[in-house]
Amino acid sequence: MESKKQTHSGEKQASVYRSGRFYTVANEWYFSVREAEDQGPYSSKSDAEKQLKVYILDQQHFNDKKLFKLELI
Questions:
Q1: Cis omega before residue 41 (within 30°)?
Q2: What is the DSSP letter of 14?
């Protein structure tokens, strides 16, 4: 996983951020998402990529249902 430090105007300390969604720790793969904790571990990057697609489809499905329920009220 690649990380970089960046200092923004007016800030005293540099913030650390990840440059990629996928990363590995001890030969196990993870992916990061804004909405929740990082997801994993997976045995390969390919597995993590597949599970990210499933995660995105699940989130889209959940959000569609949520919007539909709000419209019914």
A1: yes
A2: P
